[in-house]
Amino acid sequence: MSAPASAPESVFGRLEPRLASVSKPIQYVGGELNSTVKDWDCAPEGETVHWALMYPDAYEVGLPNQGVQILYEVLNERDWIVAERTYAVWPDMERVMRAGDAAGPIPQFTVDAHRPVRAFDLFGFSFSTELGYTNMLNAVDLAGIPLHAADRGEDDPIVLAGGHAAFNPEPIAAFIDAAVLGDGEEVVLAISEVVREWKQEKNGPGGSAMTRDELLRRLAVSGGVYVPRFYDVVYAEDGTIEAVVPNRPGIPFRVRKHTLMDLDAWPYPSKPLVPLAETVHERYSVEIFRGCTRGCRFCQAGMITRPVRERSIRTIGDMVENGIRKSGFEEVGLLSLSSADHTEIGEVAKDLADRYEGSNVSLSLPSTRVDAFNITLANEFSRNGRRSGLTFAPEGGSERMRRVINKMVTEEDLIRTVATAYSHGWRQVKLYFMCGLPTETDEDVLAIAELAKQVIAKGREVSGRNDIRCTVSIGGFVPKAHTPFQWAGQLDHETTDERLKKLRDTVREDKRFGRAIGFRYHDGKPGTIEGLLSRGDRRVGAIIEQVWRDGGRFDGWSEHFSYERWVASAETGLAGTGVDLDWFTTREREYDEVLPWDHLDSGLDKDWLWADWEDALAAAEGSDIEVEDCRWTPCYDCGVCPVMGTEIQIGPTGQRLLPLSVV
Amino acid sequence: MRDQPEQQAPPVQRLRIRYAKRGRLRFTSHRDFSRAFERAIFRARVPMAYSSGFNPHPRISYAGAAPTGSASEAEYLEIGLAETRDPASVRAALEEALPDGLDVVEVVEAAGGSLADLLEASHWLLDLEVDPQVAEPAVAAFLAADAAPVQRMTKKGLREFDCRAAVVALAAVPHGAGTRLDLVLRHAVPSVRPDDVLAGLASVASLEIPGAPLLTRLAQGPLDPVTGQIGDPLRG
């Protein structure tokens, strides 16, 4: 991994004659507006640190990813760091690359300068979902890097995982050198410093001691970077984990997550990437706050990103104006886990709508809760007249179910909210639910149909029209690490599919409302595999590898996903372990079981999580327990702030946005 | 009942734009380009006129886009503005707002008439990894033929059509170790593309063309029926 004497050669010349033969070649050429290409040895003095950042999905999904864009920009702002991006190549391109040319296979490359990924010091993956694991293996292999971390040599990059899935990286422990939990902005710079220092020492006297192992040791002793190889996992007779312990001195027992405080000081992305290719999100997004404390028990994002940290109204206003001017996007999304909860969201909505009134700039607010206030916001955001659809997420069909998940929305709330929406000219409401939640019965799922019918009835009543629509969208619930439902048994995919079929039949049979209700769902099989990967331990790695060897790629895409391949690979991969696919998915865990991610510290107190799980089960039996939001009510002792040394950062600031003067 | 959308005023100025697709951005498809261009006019703050309707669109007319993967020095479009602007300043602003490789070459006030009607023919250069000694007789055989039937997959399925009649001129010259074909193509229906002519060379003269030839459009415009020369569609 020592710096080569000269920059690695671009592979573009080898790629170019073949691009006409692959689908959508524009995704492989780079050249996006606001992208950065730097000299390989750009550091004014000393060593340059090289990062290849990958979102392990197709370019059209990966390019808009906020996390990668932020880190790409933060890293490239340093004059001694080069950061470039790479994405998963489609199977047609993979065939072209493996077939190669006279010089051999064409390796995994970055889209910025088309440099081979293996030439970089660090190969960082951002995992929003576990279904990207086979794409990681493919990219590592295409790059010419040994698949197993244990087989990598001094010239191979450090393979690093981040993103939400990295809160339980055990299933990919054999393939990564390190993982990082939490917000990436500061830790990528800290890691870069360690790598730079190590590279500099490597060139000096005693450089031979600066091995790959030594670099990983330096990263691990900080307590902020997880290096799986420095921990041994011991299994008990019954197949559960007996202990996870460091296997060398100086390695901490637990690894901490990272939390960025003062988001106003980090207004990224400030140079949004604008692709030429069509991508899944064609808009500029501003994260208006990070973290969520609503306490929905199924929501991993809400649990692992605590505490709430808001961006101020001024920063939001500046980011929106800068973002649309630099990108040319006319659509702006205000992102967060529950956007209407921002302390000054009303002012943000009104002031932005005022600023851009009469222009074609449109604003959207995804992830809002079910209450009438959101209609006021939505009205602000649609002043120029387009009121096509509104989305709400009650998540549970019955009130009992909503108590279990701690998403306290009453039926009256929901009906009142949609009535307001329909009376303000909205014609379509989309409702999002989950199937397979703990303690769920057929009746809970069938309650979704009743709710949808009432929504249509109310809509027809208040609008006096018949063209009212309601789309019901259903996702399968997957229990995730670091949540109160981490102990829950996952519903098997057969029962999931049966329940969804009953629901669909009930909706279709209804003569008055059936045609006004749209129904969207996926079968339960991908959820079972996501469940395996979410709560799996190191033994699951063999399954992932087998699936990849068998041709598994793009598991998040229904046309590429093969359940049969995963089931067959689980049988061979887990042979002799005494555990199987069901053991990882449908089995309910006990209080004293060591969970594979217990040594990874999200700040959440495990006893608090367990108490919350017990509260959920009590709520299922009818007890009236609600965990309120600590943003508005006193601390409920989840443990994050004292353990992590963080605090809630919210407004109101009392400030307003001024009209922009036209240049 | 829903209100009718506001009627938009007609454009007060029409500008015609010549742009180039160069280097790696030759892999930009026409759809990709149109999205990038719409963002660029917003970034450049060009005061666009919009179409009427529930979903107003900026007034942009594209004409005769080159196929994905081919480079071009001569692509054209026309935009309608709500306020008058100096064409040179629009050119500078758009050049700044578009990524390198999608380059605005020229902006002029529209002369009237239809831009698409002015684009009667194209001048192409086709760079092949073929020995000129092999290419030259193949070109001669192609030109001597009355017709050159070729097939291409279209949206309506596999179609067979003649590619010979659209060829106004074709010549092979040595270019490095290979051959450069100099081609003038009349825009016809069904449209004949330069890769169709390569297919025609294969079918009529059994010319084998390895790899992916680089295709570059040099000019597009009115065709002089006497000289076979292509004129400038922005002056005429």
Give a structural overview:
The two termini of chain A are 49 Å apart. Chain A has two domains: 223 residues, Cobalamin-binding domain (Rossmann fold, 3-Layer(aba) Sandwich), CATH 3.40.50.280; 287 residues, Alpha-Beta Horseshoe (pyruvate-formate lyase- activating enzyme), CATH 3.80.30. Chain A is of the alpha/beta class. With 236 residues, chain B is α+β, with helices and mostly antiparallel strands. In chain B, 23% of the residues lie in helices and 33% in strands. The longest helix of chain B has 14 residues. The interface between A and B is medium-sized, with 32 and 31 residues.
Summarize the topology.
The complex is a heterodimer of chains A (663) and B (236).
Chain A: H1 12-19, E1 49-58, H2 59-62, H3 66-76, E2 81-88, H4 91-99, E3 122-126, H5 133-142, E4 158-162, E5 178-179, H6 185-203, H7 212-221, E6 231-235, E7 241-246, E8 255-256, E9 284-287, E10 289-290, H8 300-304, E11 309-310, H9 313-327, E12 331-335, H10 345-355, E13 362-364, H11 373-381, E14 389-395, H12 399-404, H13 411-423, E15 428-435, H14 442-463, E16 469-476, H15 493-509, E17 517-521, H16 525-534, H17 541-549, H18 563-573, H19 581-585, E18 600-601, H20 606-620, H21 640-644
Parallel strand pairs in A: 1-2, 1-3, 3-4, 4-5, 8-18, 9-12, 12-13, 14-15, 15-16, 16-17
Antiparallel strand pairs in A: 6-7, 10-11
Helix pairs in contact in A: 5-17, 10-11, 13-14, 14-15, 17-18
Chain B: E1 13-21, H1 30-43, E2 60-63, E3 71-81, H2 87-97, E4 102-109, H3 115-118, E5 121-128, H4 132-144, E6 149-154, E7 157-162, E8 167-175, E9 178-186, H5 194-205, E10 214-221
Parallel strand pairs in B: 3-10
Antiparallel strand pairs in B: 1-3, 1-4, 2-3, 5-9, 5-10, 6-7, 8-9
